[in-house]
Write a structure and sequence with these properties.
Layout: E1 3-12, E2 15-25, E3 30-35, H1 41-48, E4 56-61, E5 64-65, H2 71-78, E6 81-85, H3 96-106, H4 111-124, H5 140-151, E7 158-162, H6 170-187, E8 190-195, H7 198-204, E9 207-212, E10 215-221, H8 222-227, H9 232-239, E11 242-243, E12 255-257, E13 265-270, H10 278-285, E14 289-300, E15 303-313, H11 316-328, E16 332-335
Parallel strand pairs: 3-8, 3-9, 6-7, 7-8, 11-12
Antiparallel strand pairs: 1-2, 1-4, 4-5, 9-10, 12-14, 13-15, 13-16, 14-15
Helix pairs in contact: 3-4, 3-5, 4-5, 5-6
Length: 339
């Protein structure tokens, strides 16, 4: 199901939580919404999931406007939406299976149908042997799997994941993201991932919108934002993907920063350019020196994305020529300030 947001505005007194946001979220894709605390993510998802009405603007599912539905239509539409939260929102008094059964009980499904559906869903998330397990006996990752199964109980068209991995360790986060991607493909869902972690966007999303102060700073395919970020907030998110020092336990896709000093230039390149000795050729071509402060290669949407943070030494004329040379090679060059 396609989601279209048109000029959404939401105020809480003097707080402008969402200011004129328009977005097109394609069907059957995973769309990320990322922003720092206070950027408007939670308010936006509450309007998208029909939990709150906008002060102005409209929300459309395919060609149907859904923000002005009457009570009965709204209840019916909400049943076609699945929600996953950071804190799981499970009933501690129920077993894993009975948590998954809850939305089916509300809909009046028969006991036999519920049991069949619960087994299907628990098997889908890899917990068929935990149906009768109390929630208190499950790990954080298992609890989130139960929450995913419950969110899928009524066969939704849209799945909202609101900071769904923020409470999990990195390894469990990767497993949950992989599960969501598998489910999305299998069920042809439109998935909206709300997060403050660029790693989540990198590892799971096809498209992304970056929020800042209640508005959209930029949006587009994830690969484009990683290779050619335009807004300051996006560049800040990408900079925080870099780890502080070399560590043998780091995964291949992490960027490593081994020097906090310098780093005036950030170079971004993609695809085959990650295996090309461009800097070596540059130093032979021009009388400049390149001091690399950080770097690494990540995999985004099946494509390699390289990043290097460096300083380029030489007289002003040769530095300018060096930047022109890099740009002609297809490298995006961002210039900051010397530290």
């Amino acid at each position: 199901m396609r989601i279209t947001l048109k000029n959404l505005v939401k105020h809480y007194g003097s707080l402008h939580a969402v200011s004129d946001i328009s977005l097109e979220i394609p069907e059957n894709r995973i769309f990320g919404i990322i922003g720092k605390s206070g950027a408007g993510k939670s308010t936006l998802v509450r309007m998208m999931s029909l939990l709150e009405k906008p002060d102005s603007g409209s929300v459309w599912f395919d060609d149907k406007r859904v923000d002005q539905l009457d009570r009965d239509e709204l209840i019916a539409q909400r049943r076609k939406i699945g929600m996953i939260f950071q804190n799981f929102n499970l009933f501690s008094s129920r077993t894993a299976g009975r948590n998954v059964a809850y939305p089916l009980e509300i809909c009046g499904m028969s006991k036999e149908q519920i049991e069949k559906r619960v087994f299907e869903l628990m098997d889908l998330v890899g917990l068929a042997d935990r149906i009768e397990t109390p929630i208190s006996k499950l790990s954080g990752g298992q609890k989130q799997r139960v929450a995913i199964a419950r969110a899928l109980a009524n066969k939704p068209d849209i799945l909202f994941c609101d900071e769904a991995t923020s409470a999990l360790d990195p390894q469990t986060t990767r497993a949950i993201l992989d599960l969501i991607k598998q489910i999305q493909k299998k069920m042809n869902l439109t998935v909206v991932m709300i997060t403050h972690q660029m790693e989540v966007v990198r590892d799971s999303c096809n498209y992304v919108a970056v929020l800042d102060e209640g508005g959209v700073a930029e949006s587009g395919p994830v690969s484009e934002l990683f290779s050619h970020p335009k807004s300051k907030v996006t560049k800040d998110f990408l900079a925080h993907l870099m780890t502080l020092a070399v560590d043998s336990s780091q995964k291949d896709e992490e960027l490593v920063r081994w020097s906090r000093k310098g780093g005036r230039y950030t170079l971004r390149f993609r695809g085959g350019m990650t295996d090309t000795p461009v800097l070596s050729r540059l130093c032979r071509y021009l009388p400049v020196e390149v001091n690399i402060r950080a770097g690494g290669v990540q995999h985004v949407e099946g494509e390699q994305m390289g990043t290097i943070v460096c300083d380029i030494s030489g007289d002003e004329e040769n530095r300018k020529a060096a930047i022109e040379y890099l740009v002609k090679q297809g490298i995006v060059v961002e210039e900051g300030v010397d530290e």
